Amino acid sequence: MKNGYILDPEDPSELVRLLNLDRAITASMGGPLAGGIAEIQPLKNMLDLACGPGGWALDAAFALRKREVEVAGVDISTPMIEYANALARTQLRTNASFEVMDITQPLTFADGAFDAINARFLVGILKGRSQWEALLAEGVRLLRPGGMIRLVESDGLVISTCQSLARLQQSLNRKMHERGYGFSSDGGQTLGITPVLPHLLREAGFQQIRLTPFVFDGSQPNGAWMTCLRLCEFTYYLALQQGLLDDMALAEGETVPLVIEHMLADINATAFGCLTYGLMVTAMRPE
């Protein structure tokens, strides 16, 4: 793939996975404008980096429609952008627009074009400190003085009652670490991105850094277990197809598809419990 995504964005299953992930994380964070974006003055133009099929950008555009805020989304995947633009037309989101762009390269927007920038789960896209530093430098360029950047990340920390899920997640984390994603200091047991974000933002020149943790509850029966089921199904079958689970230690006669089947059965059980932890980081460009 010419892009750096850990999961292939051209695969239709990845589009479905991202739609489910978007809804789950937005709800867990308390809505699309969590973190104080709506309080920025003036707020006229927002940018969503690596927007995927456009879920967050469309939600934000709807929430801010009466204030006539324009929300732009960019992603390297043409199918994702085509889908997002189709949704915008269908949902009459005239204040939302989407373009194909590579966020690892300079973007074709003017300096200071945006009042706020949103980016979620770039840990599965950017590799190494240099790409993160370049992206945040581009964020400084694109934001007007006093503008906000909001980063939402997870270290791949999934705590559940399901041993199969733990094995699959640990294998995926290790493979991501091997391929250069994240900043793991524990050999890929976690991705190690959240502790690094404040330092990266300060180095880039951002100020007023604020950290807000959130939790996605995928438990039975009161949590979003059906969303959790779909996310796990799409994530690990895609990871299997793309060779990201080939280092799993398997028992005699066991296969990775069998481990995935056991995981899905456990998620459907009434005693299933699952919490996924993430961090929202907001920071301001100095006036």
Description:
This protein has 287 residues and is of the alpha/beta class. It has a single domain (12-284), classed as Rossmann fold. It is 38% helix and 21% strand. The protein has helices spanning 12-29, 55-63, 78-90, 128-142, 163-178, 197-204, 225-241, 256-267; strands spanning 45-49, 70-75, 96-100, 114-120, 143-153, 158-160, 207-217, 274-284. Strands 1, 2, 3, 4, 5, 6, 7 and 8 form an eight-stranded mixed sheet that branches. Helix 5 (163-178) crosses helix 8. The model has no long low-confidence stretch (mean pLDDT 94). It comes from Reticulibacter mediterranei. InterPro entries: Methyltransf_25, SAM-dependent_MTases_sf. This is Methyltransferase domain-containing protein.
